[in-house]
Write a structure and sequence with these properties.
Blueprint: H1 3-18, H2 22-42, H3 45-78, H4 81-115, H5 122-151, E1 156-163, E2 166-173, H6 176-180, H7 185-213, H8 218-253, H9 255-261, E3 274-281, E4 286-293, H10 296-302, H11 324-353, H12 360-386, E5 391-393, E6 396-398, E7 401-403, E8 406-407, H13 418-449, H14 454-480, H15 482-490
Antiparallel strand pairs: 1-2, 3-4, 5-8, 6-7
Helix pairs in contact: 1-3, 1-13, 2-3, 2-5, 2-7, 3-4, 3-8, 3-13, 3-14, 4-5, 5-7, 7-8, 7-12, 8-9, 8-11, 11-12, 14-15
Length: 491
């Protein structure tokens, strides 16, 4: 058993499980805000019923995201102590900013969002919904900034710290904003947030389509489709555009990753083609059983059909990433993204024509689309992280000076053993399976119960109003005369 492989598998599994929840929270936050905004403008109780329902779903998912995210920070110290020492100054500032600008904002308004119905004004509740949505995005901002710095470090220098008589290099921030706006942070953050919006939109559309197929909660479901389908169409197209721009930056910042995700082994000096799919073989440096479109990679990267793209042969052998896994996950992400564009465009087209509900095959396709959106998000993360190997912090150039990076194999804790890592993997796998089962059970229960109907909500509001009047009369009526006080309240 190799401690590096096990530690990487453990952290990858932890991240992938945690990453099921933050994108959904961010995407649901947008849909929730749009529902409540529509209610605030129209005072239509169907919109309020939708907002109340998605608030309950959001709260369940938010709790799971918090619970699963804590474990990753402990793994920095237990499995990756050398790495934590190297990036501590950078990550410390980014995570502190997350706590100040994101977590306090999100958690401070979350109680008002969940428990503030009928206790605060509609305007205040709308503001709370917006703040929770922005807080979830700000949290993603600082996490993506920290991760992007590993991919394209900037705004730092290397200092040597003496530990037990040995000089240990450590990255120290010299320019906070250069660190924040490193060469890949804006592109990666944009792509990440758009991916979350796609997932949230398809999740709302999926549940709404399911209700319409089962002929329940139709009024609320129709309204939810009205906002979720356009969101998915706009965001899937925007995701393709942001992904294209990110790929254009890779040739400048991480050419080895670009060569890996396109299985481009040899620089020929001729225009470079784009593989639609295939089976890369690093030993023979070829792609088997694949289909390639000539000239297209050159055009995608350089916006012309003639410029050749650098291949893997330009990278020293010891610095080359694996090819098969990032190639397959990248093409899976692109394929699923294309599928989501087609489905969302078709759904919007039939919705405008008023015939979407009649297309049961398309409605059932929409029901399944959150699986595609989740898989695309996971595939994108795997592509980004495996494509920068063997570096856990990529080498960079600062003001013409080449700065050292940190190899993944050098970032491990010196004291941890393979047996310890394997034991923790087994224990955490059991815990995560139980957590996932609880999440599915609770979420399914809320979806099966569904939202209140506008009539039920109106009746509930009337009972709340009557209850408030009765309490007021009971408190004050005896001192001033019950009947006269009732008349006063009615007036």
């Amino acid at each position: 058993m190799d401690v590096e492989i096990l530690s990487r598998l453990q952290f990858a599994g932890t991240i992938m499980f945690h990453y099921l929840f933050p994108p959904l929270s961010i995407g649901l936050g947008l849909q929730l805000f749009l529902c409540e905004l529509m209610y605030f403008r129209s005072r239509d109780l169907a919109w309020e019923a939708a907002a109340r329902f998605w608030t309950r779903v959001f709260a369940v998912n938010f709790a799971m995201g918090v619970a699963t995210g804590i474990v990753m920070e402990f793994e920095f110290g237990t499995n990756w102590a050398v790495y934590s020492r190297f990036v501590g100054d950078v990550f410390g500032s980014a995570l502190a900013a997350e706590g100040v600008f994101a977590f306090f904002l999100e958690s401070g308004f979350l109680a008002v969002l969940v428990f503030g119905w009928d206790r605060v004004s509609p305007k205040m509740h709308l503001l709370s919904t917006l703040m929770v949505f922005l807080g979830s995005m700000f949290s993603a901002v600082w996490i993506v900034v920290a991760n992007s710095w590993q991919q394209t470090p900037a705004g730092f220098h290397i200092v040597e710290q003496e530990i037990q008589g040995e000089l240990i290099p450590r990255a120290e921030v010299t320019d906070f904003w250069a660190m924040v706006f490193n060469p890949s942070s804006v592109d990666r953050l944009t792509h990440t947030l758009i991916g979350a919006f796609v997932l949230g939109g398809f999740f709302v559309a999926s549940v709404s389509a399911y209700y319409l197929l089962k002929n329940v909660h139709r009024e609320v479901a129709r309204r939810c489709l009205k906002i979720s389908l356009p969101t998915t169409l706009v965001c899937t197209v925007a995701s393709a555009m942001s992904g294209h721009h990110s790929a254009q930056q890779l040739v400048k910042t991480q050419p080895a990753k670009l060569a890996a995700i396109e299985a481009h082994f040899e620089t020929t000096g001729e225009p470079t083609g784009l593989w639609l799919f295939g089976w890369p073989d690093s030993e023979t440096e070829s792609v088997k059983y694949g289909v390639q479109l000539p000239y297209l990679l050159s055009f995608m990267v350089y916006s012309d059909f003639e410029t050749p793209v650098p291949g893997m042969d330009k990278i020293p052998p010891e610095d080359r990433p694996p090819v098969w896994l990032p190639f397959q996950t990248f093409h899976l992400m692109v394929g699923l993204g294309t599928l989501m564009i087609v489905v969302s465009a078709g759904a919007c087209w039939y919705w405008l024509r008023g015939t979407l509900i009649e297309k049961r095959w398309l409605m059932w396709t929409i029901v399944c689309m959150p699986i595609a959106a989740t898989a695309a998000n996971q595939a994108g993360w795997i592509t980004a992280e495996t494509g920068r190997q063997p570096w856990i912090v990529y080498p960079s150039v600062q003001n013409g000076v080449e700065m050292i990076g940190l190899r993944t194999s050098d970032g491990l804790s010196e004291s941890v053993t393979a047996e310890q890592v394997l034991g923790s993997i087994i224990l955490f796998s059991i815990i995560y399976l139980l957590l996932f089962a609880v999440w599915v059970f609770v979420l399914n229960g809320k979806i099966q119960h569904g939202p209140e109907s506008p009539e039920q909500l109106a009746e509930y509001k009337a009972s709340i109003h009557k209850g408030g009047m009765a309490e007021l009369i009971e408190q004050q009526g005896t001192s001033r005369g019950g009947r006269s006080m009732l008349d006063e309240v009615v007036r």
